[in-house]
From TrEMBL:
This is Trafficking protein particle complex subunit 2. It comes from the Eukaryota. One of its GO terms (biological process) is endoplasmic reticulum to Golgi vesicle-mediated transport. Pfam families: Sedlin_N. GO terms for cellular component: cytoplasm.
Length: 82
């Protein structure tokens, strides 16, 4: 099991990225890390959709909850004002 954490700018430029895993010594970890990064950056489109929906109540909150899911991996988003 792994946890990936990414901070991006409003233009989706990465500022910080980290992956935490129980097993980080084999090739599977590196391959999984690449897949996790792909999933996260693909989920940025889902974040944009949630934010751009004018009448959606969740777009008024900073914590957007689960915005996407891929192969059992859940993607949660938190936004900062500004």
């Amino acid at each position: 099991m792994s946890l990936s954490f990414v901070i991006t700018t409003k233009d989706d430029d990465p500022v910080f990225s980290a992956t935490y895993s129980q097993n980080d010594r084999d090739d599977d970890y590196r391959e999984q890390n690449s897949l996790d990064q792909f999933i996260i950056y693909a989920a940025l489109d889902a974040v944009d959709r949630v934010v751009q929906v004018g009448g959606d109540k969740t777009s008024q909150h900073l914590f957007l909850k689960k915005v996407d899911e891929f192969q059992g991996k859940r993607i949660y988003a938190y936004m900062t004002p500004g």
